[in-house]
């Protein structure tokens, strides 16, 4: 019987466009694009040139600061372009995919005969080490560290997030093998967070230490789960792995290949038929959304988000899905403005206060856009952040310590426990319209610079 932790603080934002429970196969795309910017803190060094032939699982680049950390191609084919931005920054490595996939073969020993070093070396050689993220800081884990525990969230509570039990319903063996592989990397426990009331494939993974959570978003955030199970203190390190990435790691140990097939939830109010789509990672957005985006009657545009509306990344219509995203969301851009909109009843708008009438309709689903409905203002003491963050820290004071660059106060106020997504809900409810997630990352980068 797993332990249950009941969270009361948080907020479920009910949006239109929840994915229907059917999975379709995406058509093979002509190209796939890997972006180094999907990996926080990585300085990429190319291992391929335009015209080179690669297999699925072949390394495309490595981290200049840690050359042993490789990043693999999700498909086989020819490197058709290396797209660069300002100061020759690498934006995308584009691979023109073969019609029939050719996989890099890895020599995999039976897991019971593997030690920590064997598992680490295989994950590094295959490029799958990039799926292991360390706390504090939310960066790719250092292979030389010994984490006190590894955490996996078995559910996502973000708006319109995919149902992982449904998306991974045929991945039981791969999930079990992935967890067994991760157990080799720590002398502590592998923790698995479950949603209260869920009964599916993930709850059957008894080879991990299970803890059940109930309550609103961000109950599914792995950072919140770490805080309530085994918090990160100064000098300690824990690792986290996304549940779909656990299945990909398990596939490597079961089949000896890097198969980055994953299931995406295509969601949002501007999607004609929200559903689940199975595709290889880093596919073009246009392939997954082709013919499935509503025409905007008011002449406005849409925003395509690789991820959820709170912490996802804006993606161009001709761009590629982020390396580890599980969701694509399409909502109105919010580039249309209302005349004296502040004086309107705004029956179709959502607010956490009683400024609109949404509080009278708790179960209504909304078609929200990206309009801020106001400009940036100084921080004010409202107590809102503490109401929606289910962690025993003071987020407003932490943010002020970050802005002041006060390392000692940042440590004392909980910088080791949070990354951007943990405070994404605070950004949503913030009446001051500040970019809180950007501020958190700036604080983390300052900590890395000053203390490492």
Characterise the protein shown here.
This protein is an alpha/beta fold. Helix content is 21%, strand content 21%. It has eleven helices and 20 strands. It has helices at residues 116-126, 164-167, 172-183, 222-229, 243-255, 285-289, 384-388, 395-404, 407-412, 424-429, 436-451, and strands spanning 3-6, 23-25, 31-34, 44-46, 53-54, 59-63, 66-72, 77-84, 90-97, 133-135, 139-140, 149-153, 189-195, 209-214, 238-240, 261-267, 275-280, 302-306, 313-315, 327-332. A seven-stranded mixed beta sheet has the order 1-14-13-12-15-10-11. Helix 3 packs across helix 5. The protein is globular. The two termini are 41 Å apart.
- Total helical segments: 11
Rg measurement, Å:
22 Å
Structural class given helices, strands, pairing?
Answer: alpha/beta
- Describe the global form: globular
Please, what is the average pLDDT?
Answer: 93
Outline the biggest β-sheet: 7 strands, mixed
Q: Give the strand content.
A: 15-25%
Q: What proportion of the residues is helical, as a percent range?
A: 10-25%
Termini gap: 41 Å
Number of strands: 20
Low-confidence parts, pLDDT < 50 over ≥5 residues?
Answer: none
- Oligomeric state as shown: single chain
Spatial order of strands in the largest sheet: 1-14-13-12-15-10-11
Give the arrangement of secondary structure elements:
Layout: E1 3-6, E2 23-25, E3 31-34, E4 44-46, E5 53-54, E6 59-63, E7 66-72, E8 77-84, E9 90-97, H1 116-126, E10 133-135, E11 139-140, E12 149-153, H2 164-167, H3 172-183, E13 189-195, E14 209-214, H4 222-229, E15 238-240, H5 243-255, E16 261-267, E17 275-280, H6 285-289, E18 302-306, E19 313-315, E20 327-332, H7 384-388, H8 395-404, H9 407-412, H10 424-429, H11 436-451
Parallel strand pairs: 1-14, 2-17, 12-13, 12-15, 13-14, 16-20
Antiparallel strand pairs: 3-9, 4-6, 5-8, 6-7, 8-9, 10-11, 10-15, 16-17, 18-19, 18-20
